[in-house]
Input
Amino acid sequence: MCVKQKVSKPAEAKTSCPVEPMSGQRAEIGNSASYSAGEPAKSSTKGIDVEVEAEPRKLCGFTRKSFLKFTDEVLALSMCGQLGIVCRDFLTAASKDVLVAPLFSALASNMLGSFAMGVLCDGKAASAYVRRAEPDSEGLLTAEANKVKGEKMPLLANLKASGGMASVLLGMRTGYCGAFTTLSSWNQSMVEHVVKAGGPTFADSFVGYLIGLLASVMSVVLGQMFALYIFELNIQGAWYSVWPHAFFAACGRRPWLVRLSFWALFLTGLALISAYAATLEESDDDRDLCFALLFGPLGVLLRWKLGKLLNAKFAPFPLGTFAANVLGCIGVGITKAVLDDPNGDSYWVSLQMAAIGLGFCGSLSTVSTFVTEVVDRLQPIAIKGAKAKSCTLWGVIYPVGTLAAGFVVGLASYGWSVWAYD
Output
């Protein structure tokens, strides 16, 4: 930072840039003085004043603040992810005997999870639906769109995403909605249509992919429009607005108490799940769910980290979400191949394979985030300083590429187990 040199004649004032001192040391220019580590370093010489803030101490790359933020995010993703797995398993079991080819059992959970993702959208997504049906001569619609765009979650207007609130939003969107929906189970159903002899054909798989994609896209769009409607309605004093704000405000006043309470709840939940699973019969499907809840958070966290590391590498094609979905499809294909082995496996091998497929792989892959990214790329956005709109072709390339890759790796990871015994 440049500082102004003080001289007797203001007209002759000059600007100089002193060399920044090392962290934890006093900035000495001319005179020396004592300095205690951890406090701002301040040096005063004739004509020059310098003040340097000491860098916070780091442990394994984390500062105290960043470590607490990271643990909050892990906790929110894990707890919300487990809730999403429970909802998905319930709806999938209820739909298994109702939805027949070309439909699939994960269709209901994918649609509801995508709708929830739309309802919980941020202001940027909702602002795209502020229509310009007539000339905006006074700039009112543009101002309204900018107002919506600044919201953290239009469903709750003026929500402050400070403290742990940002972690809660991350947990609800990436954790709950991401684990509520699954691309791997959907893809596996389409692969089995082709692989298993005497069953549905390739045409049924194509229709199943088409229905699943369009239904999920429609669901997320309806959710985003619903969130915008609630924001525009903006009923002052409504219970659905007052109570959440009051709750989040109370949590913000006691962050340590809230953090410890949720960690205690999460660890207690894991203990209860393990104890409950031990009391169930081996043939009980709830036992698969209990073990899946132990594997589920790992899938959610891996998908989150892949998104953070890779999605920004090439914005038109989110590589992180793509990698998570492809890996999830491979994992489900392998677990299904082991479970369908006619030679049979031990009970514990079958149990763990089912739990990994339902929990880890089901949470690693996602439809809600996937279709939200598709919708975002289908909407043309004006490029600053140019007359043309941004290219929307990636809104077609991305979903087609993801589904095609999932089908190919699904055939490779599962098909051999069927063809080997034909």
Summary: The chain has 14 helices and four strands. Residues 66-419 form one domain. The radius of gyration is 27 Å.
